[in-house]
Amino acid sequence: MSDAVLACLAFLPIVVVGVFLVLLRWPASRAMPLSYATVVALALAVWKVPLIKVGVASIHGLIVAGTLLYIVFGAILLLNTLKESRAVARIRRGFTDISPDRRVQVIVIAWLFGSFIEGAAGFGTPAAVAVPLLVGLGFPPMAAVVSGMIIQSTPVSFGALGTPILVGVKTGLEGSSAVAEFAKQAGYPLTEGSFDLVSSGFLAAIGFKVALLHCITGTLIPLFVVTVITRYFGPNRSFAEGLRVWKFAVFAALSMTLPYLAVAYFLGPEFPSLIGGLVGLGIVVSAARAGFLTPSDDVWNFAPREQWSSDWIGFSSEKDSDAEPAGMNIALAWLPYVLVAVLLVATRVPEAHIKPLLTHNSVTIKIDWDHLRGVPADSPSATGIKPTEVQPLYLPGSIFIVISLLTFSLHRMNSRAYAAAWKSSSYTMLRASVALVFTVPMVQVFLNTGGGSEGFERMPIALANGVAALAGNAWPLLAPFVGGFGAFVAGSNTVSNMMFSEFQFGVGQRIGVAPDWVVALQAVGGAAGNTICVHNVVAASAVVGLVGREGLVIRRTLPVFCYYALLPGSLGYAIVWSSQTGWLNAGSVLFAATLASLLAFAVIQSRAGRTERILATDETRTKHG
Q: What are the tens digits of pLDDT across the range 211-222?
């Protein structure tokens, strides 16, 4: 079977997702079973994967789905606990004191606080923390989810203390003789006669390239967030209202990305997002309090709740009480979120020495599927699927639950209110489970389609091979899209980098360009893919009761993904071909054209908004004589 036909077949499960979930707006609970059935049929009938391997991959997916539901439950429980203690009302007033403008609030919480949490924990945790916080402040749940997903781009490559680079790219590249030979020729030193990706500095160099591409592309992400919010969730449905805060949005972006880039250069891949988010928070919150670059005469807010579309509101989105609890100051109201941030960092920074206690074998659930069947790992009948590991104490869900229990005491809640928080959280989690129990098994079967009797490459690689054959020398333009596709399917930048890093390196060498830059483009695209990743969207939506609206979220975030794959791709093309064609090439032209198009669109929308305001003012004057 030709590479092109195999690639088309491998693409079918994704087509099913696109058609039914995004275009026809089916809920994930209906669309994902179809996608799962499609991938199982292809695995058995075309790839000829043994039935036992498909079954094991599906069960592994169910266990992974269980861990996601555990995180979702913990996040919902913390939010509901704070609602029942009425701390949310106090936090809401605290943000109003910083700025009553919703555009400023979403930048501070989603972009900066979300980046910090991403750097500390990764794996979808920012959406579990920032999204419910936005809802608690009075954002429509749909607006909160879309905001949380859009920022799942720039900080993701260095999430969980650099896991997508230090684990994803490293695992994808290590052991490759071609990578070792290239690095040695490039001057990276050997360690005791052998090449090591980390100690040689080669991995850190790739990390800096990733940070540079993110720094350039991510500068517009806060502006994307606010314009999407004002256009799709504002009373006037206006891009112009978001563009009016462009100075503050760009200032907030640079307050995070410049420290982020410096940390990637001087300290390596572990801390760019964590330190960048933290530094940005300090700078931007102080600036917002002082009114720096914020529109004092143009405070933007959502329409009254009664005017919200039913699509924006989840089944658990009842109106929170505006009554603040007596005797609760802002520090006490914020303390649960502060403790979440502290524990996430403390349990993940090696220097704290807590992680080994939470991930020790004695507290880890490990299932070796081949060993369980009594089959040796090197046997032809072995599934080849890695053992499933679950570390319950290390999961963010455990931290959320612990902080919820502490909040019960700290906020002096009564038992009835706390029981109500547990009850509503359990109900929301159960509603989310239907979608996730098909989404994650679909992903696992898709990823584990290698080793079939037909001898085909597993589906992701088959699809990438088909694209590479068509792209030729234009591959750098498409490399981020392949990385994004990996994250879209797998739900993880780390897994995408594991799957495709060596493949991307090899394509770079075949077309005669710097392969380390192509790997960097893969990592950036893998981060961008999180904005449209199905099971991340399902999990984030479930936290605020938006089960069944996943396709609508992806429709709003898809243009951001396209931007975040296209701009680095064109810049990467310009860089890798500059030594042979000069800087004026197809990549640099496309890069300039993309930015010029965005600028032209912004100017047109701003002028249209200015005209509308003038007409509205004239109409008001006429009415009042």
A: 999 999 999 999
